Amino acid sequence: MNKIEHIGIAVKDMDVSCDLYEKLLGTSCYKKEEVASEGVNTAFFRTGVNKIELLTATSAESPIAKFLEKRGEGIHHIAFDVENIVAEMARLKQEGFVLLNESPKRGADNKLVCFVHPKGTNGVLIELCQDIK
C-alpha cells in the first residue's frame, strides 16, 4: 500500500455537507459523481495532498443507507492507494483478511476498488484503490 488515498465520510444530506466541508476546508468540491453499482453519490475535496470523499445513499438498500441507519454520519472508510489491486487482494487473502468482493470493481474518481471486511481490521472498513489507466 502506497499511501492513504482518501477518507470516506457518510453523510445524510450532500448539499448541506458540501457547504459545511467547503467552509471547513476552505476549498470547493472538485468532483461529484454517482456510483450506481454502490447506490451512492460522492463528492470529493482536496486539501494539500489529502482527499475527503463524502458519500450519501441514493436508495434505502445501499450500503451507505444501512451504515447511516446503524451508525449515523461519520467516517465510513479509509482508502489506500495500491499499484496492483489484484496482487494486493491476493496478498491480503493469503494473510487471512476477508474481502467484500472477489474481483476489483469500478468505483468513483476513476478507480478500481475492493473493500476489506472491517471485522478483520479492528472495525475499520478499508478500501483498496488503483487508478484506472
TrEMBL record:
Any GO MF annotation of the entry: methylmalonyl-CoA epimerase activity
Entry protein name: Methylmalonyl-CoA epimerase
Annotated PROSITE patterns: VOC
GO annotation terms (biological process): L-methylmalonyl-CoA metabolic process
Keywords, sorted A to Z: Metal-binding
Top-level taxon of the source organism: Bacteria
Keyword Glycoprotein: no
InterPro entries xref list: Glyas_Bleomycin-R_OHBP_Dase, MeMalonyl-CoA_epimerase, MMCE/EMCE_epimerase, VOC_core
Family membership noted in the UniProt record: Belongs to the methylmalonyl-CoA epimerase family.
Domain VOC: residue ranges: 3-131
SUPFAM superfamilies: Glyoxalase/Bleomycin resistance protein/Dihydroxybiphenyl dioxygenase
Lineage, top ranks: Bacteria, Pseudomonadati, Bacteroidota, Sphingobacteriia, Sphingobacteriales
